[in-house]
Design brief:
Elements: H1 7-23, H2 25-34, H3 39-47
Helix pairs in contact: 1-2, 2-3
Length: 61
């Protein structure tokens, strides 16, 4: 998978994974969908957070 070029999207995904761990799938998926991420994409990202793309050479934290 190619590294992510959009820093803002990388931060959004990072925040959604943090929300997943703290508040569960519903909150995290809703957060992404409210930001315009298609549900199918949000679901895939949240179901497989260890397979997420990186921003450049590092995961954004």
């Amino acid at each position: 998978m190619k590294p992510r070029r959009d820093y803002d999207t990388a931060k959004l995904i990072d925040a959604s994974i943090a929300a997943l761990r703290a508040h569960g799938m519903y909150v995290a998926a809703r957060m992404l969908c409210e930001q315009g991420v298609p549900f199918e994409t949000a679901h895939r990202v949240l179901q497989q957070p260890d397979q997420r793309r990186t921003y450049g050479d590092a995961v954004i934290h």
